[in-house]
Every structure is written in C-alpha cells, then in structure tokens.
Description:
The chain is mostly helical. The protein has three domains: 1-32 and 383-491, no CATH class; 140-314, Orthogonal Bundle (MetI-like fold), CATH 1.10.3720.10; 495-694, MetI-like fold (Orthogonal Bundle). The chain is built from 31 helices and no strands. α4 runs antiparallel to α5 and α23 (459-491) packs across α31.
Amino acid sequence: MSRLAASRPRDWIRAVLVLATLALLALQDVAGWLVVYPDAWVLPITPWLNAFMVWCVDTVGPGFRAFSATVDVPMTAVRELLNWLPWSVVLAVLTFVAWAAAGWRLALFTGFAVLYMLIIGYWTESMNSLALVAISVPTAVGVGFGLGALAFLSGRAERVIAPGLDLMQTVPAFAYLLPILLLFGFGPVVGLIASVLYAFPPMVRNTRLGLARVSSEVIEAGLMAGATPSQLFWRVRTPSALRQILLGVNQTTMAAFSMVIIASIIGGTADIGWEVLLTMRKAQFGESLLAGIVIALMAMVMDRLTAAAATAEPKDPGGDRGLFARHRNAFIAVGLGLAVGLLAELIPFLKAYPEAWEIYPAQYLNDAVTWLVVEHAGTINLIKSWAFFFVMLPVKTGLAQTITPFTWGFEFTPGLKAGYVALALALVLYMAVRRGVGRASSIAFLAILLFFGLTRLPWPALLAMATLLGWQLGGLRLALGTAAALGFLIVAGVWPQAMLSVYLCGLAVLLSFALGVGLGLLASEYDAVSAALRPINDTLQTMPLFVILIPFVMIFKIGEFTALLAIMAYAVVPAIRYAEHALRNVPAQVVEAATCFGCTRRQLLWRVKLPLAMPVIMLGLNQTIMFGIAMLVIAALVGTNGLGQQVYIGLGDGDFGVGIVAGLGMAFIAMIADRMTQGVSRTWQERLGPTPRQ
C-alpha cells in the first residue's frame, strides 16, 4: 500500500473528479443541465460580433476597398508579365536559378516541374497562381520582418504580438475569409490579403528568434567599432541573424502556397487553385490530382530554393569587387532570359506550346479508381465498417450506445455491462496499489469515457478534468487559460460541436502519432526506408488539403471514416519527421558509451535512443495536433459535424459571428493542446537532465 499512501494531493483531486463524474451521470435524468448546458444560459456572442462587423464595414469599409483597388495594380501587372513571357524563358531562368542555388539535382527537378505544368496543359493557370505567390510572399516577408524586429526591440510589443500570432496560426483560414470579404470586397486582391495574413506569422517568429540569438560578442564588437543603434541593427545584428531570417522566408513561402486554393475561393481567378476546386466539386479524382500536383511541384521547388538560400554559407561581401562580380548570377539569368526570348521569336513552339503536344491522363486515373472501388468493394466496406463500429463509435458515443446486434452482432446485456464494470474496478484497484491513485484515476476516467462516450460526458466534469491536467502540465497559468478557453466554448453554445471536433481530431492524432513514430523509428534505423518516405512526406505536406480528400472520398464515400483518413494522411508527416530527426540526432557520445557497455541494437534503440529522443518526439506530437486541427476544417466538407462545419455555415450564410466563434473555438483547442504537449516535453526533459552535446 506504499504507492497508495504516497500519492500526491493532485492525484486525490483527480480521484474526486472521477467520483464527481459518476455522480453527475447518475443525476442526468433529474438535473439535465449538469450534463447538457442549457440553451437559455448561452450568451448572445454571435449577435454581438455581427453587430460589431456591420459597424466596421460601414465605418472603414470604403478605405479597405480603396486599398484593395490600389494593390490590384501591381498584382495585375505581375500576372500579365508572367503570361506574356514565353514558356521557354521561364523554364531557362528558373532552371538556372535552381542550379546556381543548389546544383544540378535541383535544376533537373525544377526543369521537370516547369515542363509538367506545360505538358499537362495548366501553364496559364500556373502562372496566375505564381503571380499571387510572387506578390504575397514579399509582402508577408516585409510585414513579418517588421513585426519580428518590433517584438525583439520592445518587450511590450512582444506581449501583444505573441498571442496575436497564436491566434493567426490556429484560427482556421476559412474563419477569417468572411470578414476579409466584407471589408475588401470580392476579387483576386482578397485572395492575396488572405495569403499574406496566413503566411506572415512564421516570418515574425523566425525574425525575432534570429535577432535574439546573435551572440553578445558580435554586439560588443559592433559597439566597440562605434556603431550607432541603427547601424548596430542593420549592419551587425541583421546580417548575423540572416540564416534564421531566411528560414522564416522559407516557411512563409510554403504557407503562401498552402493558401493558393483557399485564396481561389474568394479570389475567383482562373488559377490552379480554382481548377482544383472546380474538379473537386465534380468529384473528378484524376483532374483534381493532376492540378494538385502542379501546386505540390511549385511548392517543392520554392521550398528547395529558399532552404538552399537559408543554409548557404555567408559569402565575403568583397567590397573591392566590381558590380558584375558581386551580382554575376543575376546578370547571367537576365542575359539567358533575353537570349532564349529572342530565340523564341524565331522558333514558334518555344513561345507558345502547341496544344497537340499536351498530355492529359486524367481519364486513366479515374478509371483506375473506379476499378479499385468496383473490384474491391467488399474489402473496402469491411475496413470502413470495422473501423467505424469498433473504434470510432465507442469513442464518440460509448460502448453502451454502440454495442447492438446490428453493429457488433450481439446485445450489450446487463450481465455484460456488469462484467465491464467489474473488470474496470479490478484494473483500477490494481493500478491504485501498484502505481498510485493518480494512475488509477486516469484508468477509471478512461473506462467511463469508453462506456459513455466523449460526446455524452457531463460538461462540468470535462471542464474540471482539463483544468486539472493543465495545472499538472503547465502550472496555474495554463490551468486558468484552459478553464477560460473551454468556458468560452460552453457559454458561446458550441460545446457539443467542440466535443465532436475533439473526438474526431483526437482519434486521428493518436493514430497518426502512433503510425508516424513507428515509421520514423524505421526510417532512423534504415536509410532505404528514410529515402522512400522523404518524397511521400514532401508530397503530403505540399499537396493541397482539398486534393488529399479526393482519393478517400472516391474510395470510401462521404462520412466520418473518410474524414479520419484524410486528417491522418496530413497529420502523420510531422510525427514521422520529428521521430526520425530525434532518433538520428541522439548524442554520439551516449551511443558510443552504450555500445561499449554491450547494448544490442534493440537495447540501444529502446533503452537509450528513444528515452533521450522523447522530448523532440513530443514536439512532433505538438505539430501532429496542429496539422490535425488544420485539416479538420477541410474534412468538414465530407460530412463531419463539429466546429469545422460551423465555420462553413458561417461562411456560406454570411454570418460573421457563427464563423468566428467556431474559428476561435478551434484556435483555443489548438492552443490548449499546444501548451499541454509543451508541458509534457518539459517534463521529459527534466527527467532526463542535461545531455551531452554532439
């Protein structure tokens, strides 16, 4: 009984909350408000927000529309320039830039990507999308650098900017499409503004981080040389932080590409995003995939180019060199473009690619999916039914509602229920004796959740449990923040939708994390697995989220299981990458010491590498949660009910309040999960203590 006696006060509080949950469930027939929050108690937050939005549109709307008309001028100019240039010029210049940045491999890949857009017949649409990115990325970089520098220079500004960035990166983009539409009107510029708002936060974070990491020795050297504050910032600190800043440019570029389709929804331009949307609405898998690959290729090329710039060794400025020597590659690129442009005037197909040479294999892809669905219909239905009835429904509505002759083949009789309760009690008592009250309470709560289902548990119990978990993982501040955020969901009347979102996203994240860590473990041990997974990860991260839905919809039709698979396909990538990175970067001294002590390969992995890599792997869980929540909104298109569906309802009905309340709810859930996983990571790090550096 030593474990039981040694339990901490927090563990006993958890036990009391478990008993309180059972009491609330027992009283649900007498006092229903203890389980379901009454509609009469819901605050009219939505009408308040709508009234505020109407005031904003009436007051500052004309100014925003004037700004939109002004920004339309350079965007139209860039779009017309890219469409005017011969395809051969674009191919030659981009391939040369890739070669100059990272060598022949990237040049070869860039040439393939450009030729794919051309041969598949999406050249004009691709150039229109590239024009959007060409304006949005520099704008987002400029805004992000300015705010990042301000956050670095002013602690007061940082306290305002930091929570704003959290909201910008966690509120679904669809939630703020409606206010942008209402303020700026409909058109391509609106898509540009949405892209900038979505893409600039990574630049802010990397700029501030890079400026803060400049060593004190460099700053002291600048001061000793007599630099003024302005010179110290621009000529000393900024060049020293350039590599981290360029990493911010890389992430901003990728974020801008991920917004291409969403921008098309409100931009209405004939770009590649619109093509994906149009074919997706018609459930044309082949057409959607071919168009989506264009965006993926463009994103991968820009990712490699900006990553190469960020990781390149800084060059000696060479003040005594001439203008051509300092900008040799730029002059060569311009000269090459002019030469190819002149050649295109002489050779017609270098200027306008003949339509007869285009290859469009969409029908073959559609036929392949149709064959798969028809020939393997039994297997597909079996997978879908087993996953839905034996995994998803028990978590959602509980075993008490799920087990029926139709779903499981037998009735959940009182005798079986008594057996379940007895088994749960035995396990709880065993854990209390062997592991303490805390572990036993966690097992008891999971048993209750599995019996009744997440969506049928009393809201006060879930609120109290989440608050206690926040206290244990992050202290009083996280506990208060958790209580306030979940309290907002309750009083705003979106608690049932929030629980549906937590159920679907939580299950997808757990499965994705387990699968991703397993694949990352294999990739860290076998280079062939790592090489095979790398292009798959790149494709999943750069492929438009809408396109990821298409194959699952074609095979499994609309429903929650399809949404689960789509979320997993997107959220599994960070789990794989963080696990592989963490395991491959365990300090060499530790590995050598364990090997000298006679550890086998399996012991080295499970007893040395995995425990040391766990803090970084937990960061992968953090990112898996973020990716899952981002995909949750897209998954609402295939029939899920939850906060994501509320966002679409608000956008479709022009109801700003509904959309923004749902968007804020998703942001709050994401931030709570983010802080809690960070707390788990810190706990692991404290257990391990300082480790030797590689």
